[in-house]
Each structure stands twice: as C-alpha cells, then as structure tokens.
Specification:
The complex is a heterodimer of chains A (14) and B (257). Chain A is an all-beta fold. Chain A is built from no helices and two strands. Classes of the chains: A mainly beta (14), B mainly beta (257). At the A-B interface, strand 1 and strand 2 of A face strand 10 and strand 20 of B.
C-alpha cells in the first residue's frame, strides 16, 4: 500500500 | 479599513464553494495588494492558497493589514443570499469584530447587507519554496475533473506519469485497472481545449484521488487547469483567475508500495 506523506515534510513553518 | 467591490458575487461564491470542504476556518489576509488566504486541511495533506489581487476589485481600498478570520460554513450561508450577478462589496474596520457583505442587484434596486462575526484564528503559515517543476501540464479543467472522477471509481490513488510520450493518469484497484493518456494538442478555434506539456525530465508520482476530485470543484472558475510536478515534491494544481488572481492547491504525494 502507498503511504500518504504530509506537507510538513516539504514546506517550512514561518 | 477594507472596502473591496467585486463586479460579480459569482467569483467569491465559486472560490468559497471550491475550498469549503477542504478547510473550515481561515484567515482572509487583506492588504493593499489584495486578499489572500492560505490554509491546510486537518490532516496536513493538502493546502489551499488563494490570491485575489486588488485589480480584481473595483474599487479596492485597504490601508493596513487586516486578517479576517472567517468560518467558511458561515460565509457559505451568507453567500447563498447573493445572486451570481450581484455586485458584492466586502467591508471591515481596522480592528474588526465583523465583516460586512453588501449584495446589490444590477437590475433592481435591491440591496442586501449581512455581517459575519469574525473569529481569532491562530493559523500556521507555511513557506512554500519556489520550485522549478520538472513537468508542467496545462489542460482543460473539465478534462482533468473527468479523469479524476472516472479513475476514482476504480481506486483511491492515481499515478501521474509525464514523459516525452505525454501524460498518463493510471490507477489499479480491486476490480481492475485503468489509464488515460493525453498528448500535447492545440485547438486553434478553442484554445481552452489545448493540452500543453512542458517537460524538462520525466516524472512519476502517486496521489490520493479523493483530494484531486475535491480540488476539481474549482473547475468552473477557469477553463484550464495547470498541474506542476517534480519527483518527490507536492503537486501544484492551479486555476488561474482574471487579473493574475489564482486559486492553487498543493497535495503531498504518496510513497512506497
């Protein structure tokens, strides 16, 4: 099965 | 104070309709360049980014930064009272408790006025890095919507593979598998039907169809949709609006097998 990634991995918090 | 007048309420009605199932409470950040919104869904899988430039309004006035924290369900209830063709004016004070919406019928002398109570929303603001995408696909928004809906009947996920041959949307499910392949295509009479594929390197990524089908609620805002992909980064789905305004969605990819 595929695992859903989250955006936190890619976009930094400002 | 903010005063922003839209020629047609339709634009805001459609934008809110396209995002209300993804995000519930959001800040509409108003400044002299326009009205912007950025919000993630609860599971941090998808992000919506809206920009309505000041040029999309006439007139537009906003002296200082104002964040309007609005519950989209409440906004939807009020916008239902506006006819598509109504002139819509948004108004707020500098430190507002409410946002004021006025709907004016161009044909009759009917003026309706609503106030929505504002909320304090402590929203996480994400920095989205500038990305040179490996593949950019422009296609009819209705075509993208149809592909996503058709493939969702078979599977939860779709792989989007972009190569010199074209772009292939493929899925595998319990009952079988399916795919749709599009190649670059120019329709001189109907440019909205064009398929344009701009590729610097082949890309293959897998995404949740549930989210893509949700993004497609924005299809009525623009005849074309732009998909931007690079390996191992979120997909960008963009609906361009008039005056450089836009509605963008970002979706994190799925990995592994």
């Amino acid at each position: 099965h595929h695992v859903q990634q989250t955006l936190d991995t890619f976009f930094c918090s400002r | 104070m903010l005063e922003a007048r839209l020629e047609q309420a339709n634009l805001l009605k459609k934008v809110v309709d396209a995002i209300k199932d993804l995000v519930q409470d959001c800040n509409f950040d108003c400044n002299d360049s326009g009205i912007a919104l950025q919000a993630m869904d609860n599971s941090h899988v998808a992000l919506v980014s809206m920009m309505l430039k000041s040029e999309s309004f006439s007139p537009f006035r906003c002296d200082r930064n104002i964040a309007l924290g609005i519950n989209l369900t409440s906004l939807t209830k009020v916008l239902r009272a506006a006819q598509n063709e109504d002139i819509l004016t948004l108004k707020a004070e500098d430190a507002p408790d409410v946002v004021n919406l006025v709907f004016e019928s161009a044909e009759s002398d009917r003026i309706s006025e609503y106030d929505i109570k504002l909320m304090d929303i402590d929203q996480e603001h994400l920095g989205i890095p500038e990305t040179e995408y490996a593949a950019t696909i422009s296609m009819p928004s209705a075509e993208f919507q149809r592909i996503c809906r058709d493939l969702m009947a078979l599977s939860e996920s779709v792989s989007i593979e972009c190569s010199k041959e074209g772009v292939k949307f493929a899925c595998q499910g319990d009952i079988g598998s399916g795919s749709v392949t599009l190649r670059s295509h120019t329709n001189v009479d109907k440019p909205e039907m064009n398929v344009e594929i701009d590729l610097t390197e082949p890309v293959s990524l897998t995404f949740s169809l549930k989210y893509l089908v949700g993004f497609c609620k924005a299809s009525s805002l623009s005849g074309q949709v732009k998909l931007c992909l690079s390996n191992e980064v979120p997909l960008l789905v963009e609906y361009a609006l008039a005056n450089n305004s836009y509605l963008r969605f970002y979706l994190a990819p799925k990995i592994g097998d």
